[in-house]
Structures are given as structure tokens and as C-alpha cells.
Amino acid sequence: MIRVSNLTKRYGKSVVLDNLSMNVPKGAVYGLVGPNGAGKTTLLKHLSGVFMQEEGECLIDGQNVYENPQIKKRMIFIPDDLYFFQTFNTEDMVKLYKNVYPKFNMERFLKLKEVFPIDTKKKISKLSKGMQKQVAFWLGICAMPDVLILDEPVDGLDPVMRRKVWNLIVQDITERNTTVVVSSHNLRELEDICDHVGILHGGKIIIEKALDDVKSDIHKVQVAFRQEFPQEISNELKVLHHQSIGSVNMLIIKGEMEKIREVMSKHDPLIFDIIPLSLEEVFIYEMGDKGYEITNVII
Amino acid sequence: MKSQTSLFNKGLFSSVIKRYWWISFLYFATQFVTLPMVLMLKKPDYIQQYSRNYDLSRAFSNTAMFTIALLYIVPIFLAVFIMRYLQTTKSATMIHSMPFTRGQILFNMTLSGFLLFSAPILLNALALLYVKNVSGLSFLFKQGDILYWLGFSILMGFLNYMICVFVGMFSGSSVAQGILTYIFNLLPFAFYLIYVYFCDYFLYGFEAYFDESIFSWLPFVKITEFYTGRFTWVEVTCYILAIIVFYMLSYIAYKYRKLEWAQEIITFPFMRQIFKYGFTFCVSTFGTMYIMEMKGDSYIWVSLILWALLGYVAAEMMLRKSFKVFDSYKGFLGYVLAMALVVAFIEFDIIGFEKRVPKPDDVARIYYNDSIYTVRIKEAGKYDYDILDMETKIEGRENIEAIINYHKEIIKNRDPEDETTKHDTIIYILKNGRMMARSYRVDYEKYLEIIKPLLESEEYKKNIYPVYRDIDPSYITEITLSLNDGSSYTLHNTTLISEIIFAAKEQIAGYSYKDVGLNPSGNYISVRFEHLKKDNKTGRIKEHRTTLMDVYSKSDPLYKYFEEKGLLENVMQELTGIDEIRYEIYNQVTNETKETVVKDKDEIEKIIKEIFDLHENRVYYNYNNVKEPTNKRIYITFRKGGKIIRDYTEYYFYENELPSFIK
Question: Number of folded domains in chain B?
């Protein structure tokens, strides 16, 4: 669906995106993670056709996004810092959207009116930031996009509002199989919603994975043996991390679960548990494996 | 697929209208109040009076001038507002994430801008039409006037709009966009002024002539010419083309403009360099021009460098939006070096401007002591000549050679430029059709011998003394003799006129090169030859041409003729019957005034004669050594029956010329 290859972007002399490539399959919810200033917004502005790429390509369904209204009609970009015309209220924006997005669904808009407690006759610029974000989502979802690009969608919102926004996104995904790219500097927030995650660091996507793969690939194992910890295990399995408290060992192991069970059972452990990893932990170890110090990359 | 081919988008278009209709409305209201309403409120009697005193054809355009002046402001204001979407990151992101190409955005912005700008004008044109047809003021202006106003306003205003949009592509700040638009419009003037000013300073012989006419096509200048009502179809076509060109250029720039440049003063990196050094250059030159006008040229180098430094630092601060700019000193050094090369290039006259003197064979004619402006008119054959006008054109081969020799000598000598020197201009028209103009300040007396062939030539005498030409005596309708004391006598007798002309020719024929070349001071009698024709019905003067000649001494043929015919007595008649003369001598040093009263008849006659003869001796005005007058000021009154009939005020005398009765 979305294919970015060898994208490079410079601001003056500093390179923000450095020969970056990424892939988002159709219907995926792609979480783009990276610290502040990693270039998430810059990348999203390329995906949404706002920025012109200097080098490389930014394709949706095989077509360049930049200056391509046909593609952009099927896509909504909700930036972090929203902008609405000074004098416009929500109704004015609806009129504008109707003329701009051919698939704009008025029924849906009216139906969602129950969800959003917003006065549509009030100037949007007079609404609070949270309200403005809701308006943006409301309008965006009603444009019936195939692709939804969200830059820090819940940044600066209170927990109730966060819940609400995430729900809306999830609802839309499940209803219409929308492809979503969502950025955040917070992995935990993306955990429940994303099925793909890409980590942006130093202008590159350093890791890009489907979450199912990630989770089935790395395992947290709690194991205790009667005798000393058998060193063979370290040779047979790929241990990313090892910590021992007394006789109890905490291992992070990369590999298939079956193989881990097989190897462990050979040594007849007293305790043997495989504990689910949080997404954050997965990436900490994945990246440690690739030589990145996690604290530098994800705050 | 239909939408792909259509540039127009209703949503985008109407969003602009919706946001900025108020500008349009204000524009309409201002125009309405100042034009149709003012015309409506004019009282009939005022208009009748007006029509008696003024040219009615101007009545409309004079009233419309204010609305025309708005063309300098409103379109630029409007364009800055409409282009605002591009100048902040947030709005630029919003608009450009929508499914439009940049071509579509620009098209809709321009179209809505056009509507917002032209609708008020159109409405007011309708209001004017109403005023004309309903209010009974129809005689005040024609339907054509309204149409002209409408067309002129929309065309010139929208051109300004488009220029502002174009400039906006190169700026990421609304304020800068507005200011840069005005600068852009005035830039040709500024550069030309710098060129003329500094060439005049650095190049010896450069004729500093600021030719405004070459800018008449500039929109900012053209707007001022609304009242003339002259606007050819060629011009209209050119301005329409200019609008299209600026649209296309804006589109091209827009295509390459990066959105992250919003909020920068200057967008494109190459433009930043041009801006930086251009700004430095302009601040440096204009600052120096100011200093030179105030304090003279002694500080020129310091001034050029200091102002450049100021400009450079200011430009760098604006571009970086920071005060930390001092690490970029290399750019400044580069600028100074480059400018030093340019100045050296001019100073050492690499192109040979200062030493260039044409060969006599290459010269078709010379205009000696004329301005480039008039020479252009004369060369175009549009000069309204009269036989009594002075002429500057020299065509005789020997005279051309004399001027060229003179020119060479000037270049060799390089006289200092001070107030005592004479300003001389030589304009060559070369055989290849080109013009070469030089002007100098010269110590003229030094060159008299060199230029003697010219000064004594028939051609030159005919040039500067129109009476010397083959003139038809009947063309001169009157001759006035004026004496230095203010008395004058006008004669219309045709016989006398032809005889005076004859005597004048005789006198001119006898002039030496000194008589011609130097301006003798202290003329005795001034003779004015006039061609005057009046309209029989109105009594107004239809034609009036005049030329002057001076008589300096009693040995001049003209004086002899006047004496012979007793004409001078006519002039002096007024002075008979004087019964009292008083003279006050004021001494400037002691601050004392001494008054003397003369009542003796013989004494009175003697004084009159002496004063009349004072200027008999010819004195050449010397540019170098202006003689200091004495510190005595004399105030003389001639009285008849107690009444002052003539007075001489502020009479300064040279020490050796003091009248005998004063000593």
C-alpha cells in the first residue's frame, strides 16, 4: 500500500531523513516510533504529499503521492499542530470538505454528531485544543479515507480524550479496513492498536516489524535449576539478556517458543515460565541486539 | 477524471472569498465614498463655477485620483492576505495535505483574488453610471471616462496584485512580502540612481542626467499617469502579458518552493545570497549618497565600507533571525574585495570612458551646451523650433574639430571642480547614430584660444544670437530698449525694427571670440526682440517668442544707431524734470548712514549722466577672480515735486568705479 524507498530530506545542511525506506501493507496500522526530533513529522509530511521528496520515492498504490490529487483524495493527514481558517466553524469546514473530498459522507457526519459534543456553529479557532483535535478526526473520518496519517494524535490530550480518540481510530480501522500510519514518541500508547511498528532513528527506520512476528520471536523466560545455570543454553539459544536473582534466572531469548521449551526441558528446570513481553521490552532487546542503546532512541 | 482536468475548485475558491470578503467590502466602501458619492454631492452652482474655471475633461480624473492612489495599497494588501496560507507552517501543511496540485491552489487563489479586487471596482463603475444618468451631472464626465477608470483600475491594480504574489513566492513572511513588493517595484529606480550618482562621482566627464522617461512603463509610475488619460492598446496588451508572465513565473517558483521555508524572510537559498549582497550594496550606496550630500565626499571610502558593514550585518540578522552573525565575516570581506575591484575598474577607467574623444570623421553633429533630454527631442524631430530660439547644434567640420580639440584639452587639464568654473556639456551625435555625452566644469578662460575658431564662426554666432540669422524683419513685432536704471521704451515701427536688426547684425559680426565666449557684465542697454501675436477675439496671447541682445559701450553699432535716431532720449524722457536727488551711503564697516540731498539743477543733471554712463566700460565677468565690491552701499532716489519717481537700491560699486559725486 505505502512504499517509501531511499527517501532523503535535508533542512539546510542537516540531514533529517537519510535514505529511508519503509513499507506499510494495506489495512495495516503502522506505528511510527521515535524520539522528539527524529523526523517523524517530516516523514509523515512526505507520506501525505505535503513535502516534495528530494531523493527517493514515496508511493501509495504504486503512485507518487506528491502533487497527486487522485491519491490525496483518498487520504487524510491530521498533523500535530492543527490549523483551521480563522473565521471558520465546523459547518464551514464541512462545506469545504464536501467540495474537496468526493467521498465525504454527510450521513456519517451527522451520525457522529452524537459522539462529539461540539457546537458546530462555534468558530473552530475558539475551541480548546482537544476539541479542535476532535473536529479534525470527525471531519477526517467522514472523508472516508483509505489512508489515515496521524501525527501524535493524542499528544496534549487528557486521558479521557485519548481513549476517545483511540476508539475512533480503532472503530474506523475495523469498519473500513483503513490503512493507518500513526506516529508517537511513546511506544506504550501504540501497543494496543498497532500491528506494525517502525522505529525511526537517525533519519532511518532502524527496525520495522509486524507485531505478531515480533512477539512470537522474542520471549521472556523465567527459569530455575537445581544446580548451576547450564552454559550450554547460551550456546544453543540466542540469549539477548540474562539476569539472575539467586537461583532464578531471567532470560530474554530470541527464537521459536518450541525450541526454547525443548532446550530448557533437556536441563530439567525446577521452574520454567514464558512470560509475555511488553512492546517496549521487545524493542529494548531488539535494538540492543542491533547495537543501539535504547535510552538514546526511545524516551 | 473530470476533476483532474479542472483547475477550479469550488471549495478552495469559496474558502478564500469567505475569509477575505471584508477587504473587498472595505475597498468598495472607500471607493464609493470618495468617488460616486463625492460626485453625487457636488452642488450644481459649484459645478457651474468649476466648469468656468477649469478644464472639464479633468473634472472626473481629479476626483478619481484618490481611488487610483489606492491601487498602490489595496492589491498588495489583498495579495499578502490571500498568500498568507503559504507563510505559516501550519496553514501551508493544511492546504497542501488536501488533494490539490500547486497549480490548482495558485489558480484558485489568483481567481478569488481577482474577484475580490475587481468586484468593488465594477460595482462602483455601475454606481458612476447611475450618477451620470440619473443625477443630472452627466456633463461632468463621459461614459468613456467610467470605462477608462474601470479598465485602468482593474488592469494596473491586478498587475500589482500579481507582482505581490510573485514576490511572495520568494518570501516566507507576510510582512517581508509586503515590503519586498514595494522594494521590487522601486528597484529599477534605485539602481539607476546609484549608477548615475556614482558614475558622476568616479567618472570624469560623466553627464549626470537622470532620465525618468525610461521608467514610464513601470506599473508604479504608470499609475501616476492616470489623469493624462493616455493608454494605448499596445500598453494594455503589454500589461496583460505582464500579468500572465508574473502568473507563470509565480507558478514555476511555487513548484520549486519548499514548504518548510515558510517563516523565512527569503525562501530560495540562491535568493538569500542575492538578497544579502543586494541589501548590503543598497545600504552602502544609499547611505554614502546621504553622507556625501550632507558632508561632501571626504568620507566616501569610510562611509562606503561602514554602511556596507551595517547592511551586511542587518541582512544576515534578518536571514538568520538571530544576532549571532559575526562568524560570517568572510562573506563581508568577499563583498568588500569585489566592490574594490569594481571601483578600481571604474577609477582606472578600464573601458576608456574618460579619455574617449571621437574622431572628427565619426561625428555627424555636436550639441554644445544642451541637455540630453532636449537633444533626444531634437534628434527625434519633435522640437518646436522658432527662429528666435537659441540653437546648440554644430555641424560645420571646422567647428566640430574645434570642439574636439577643446574636449581633448579639458581631459588633459582636469580643472578642479569649484564654484568659479563654468559648466560645459558636449553631446556628440556620431555617424553610427550613437550619442556620446560628456560634461565638465572648466576654467573657461584658459581655453578661449583653443575654442576661438568656434566662437568666431558664423555658425556659432547664428546659434546663440538669433537676430544674426536671415530673419524676416516683419516677424519681429516689437523691440524694447531697457536701460540699466529700469527705464524702457518699446517701439513697433517696422522701418525702425528692420534698421535695428541690421545694426544688431553689424554689431554681432564684429564680436570677437572674447565677446562671444565670456559673459560681459554690466550691460548698458538691453534690447529685446519680440514676436507677439494676440488673438483678435479674446485678446489672449497666441504666440510669444523673444530674444535678447546687450549693448555694452557707446562704440557699439547699436548704440550709435540709437543715438543717431534719438531713441535714447525717448528712454530717458522720464528722467527730465527731476528736481531733487537724495543719496544715502551706508558704510557696512562703521554701520553708519550718511544722507545727502541735491537740489541744484546742474548738479542733478551731472549725477543722472554719470549714473547712466556708469556701465559704459565693458567689464568681463571673470570666473576666477570675482572682484570684491566696496563695503559701501548707496541708495539713490530721484524725486519730482517731492515724489520718488525712481530709486536705485542696493547699489554696490567697485572701488575704482565709484561715481565722482560720492567721493
Answer: 5
State residue B312 phi and psi, 5-degree precision: -65, -45
In CATH terms, the fold of domain A2-202 is Rossmann fold (3.40.50)
Cβ–Cβ contacts within 10 Å for residue B230, how many?
8
State how far the Cα of A278 lies from the Cα of A280, in Å rounded to an integer. 5
CATH of domain A214-297: 3.30.70
ipTM associated with this complex: 0.87
**Cβ-based contacts of A96 with chain B (< 8 Å):** 11-12, 14-15
Which residue of chain B comes nearest to A100, CA vs CA?
A: B11
3-state helix, strand, coil in chain B (%, to 5): 60, 15, 25
* Together in a domain, B186 and B328: no
The yes-or-no verdict on residue B631 having pLDDT over 60 is no
Q: Which domain holds residue B439?
A: 360-464
Residue B3 lies in a domain: no
Name the domain boundary from B430, B464, B498: B464
* B12/A100 touch (CB, cutoff 8 Å), yes or no: yes
Grid cell 473530498 in the structure block, residue: A101
- Cβ-defined contact of A48 to B97 (cutoff 8 Å): yes
Residue B12: its chain A contacts at CB < 8 A? 96, 99-100
pTM for this model (two decimals)? 0.80
DSSP string, A226-239: SSSPPTHHHHHSEE
Q: How many CB pairs under 8 A join A and B?
A: 82
A100 and B9: CB-CB below 8 Å? yes
Residues B194 and B119 reside in one and the same domain: yes
pLDDT at A284: 76
Tell me the DSSP string of B417-447.
Answer: --TTSEEEEEEEEETTS-EEEEEEEE-GGGG
Q: For chain A, give every domain's residue range.
A: 2-202, 214-297
Reference B503, options B529, B475, B542; nearest CA is: B529
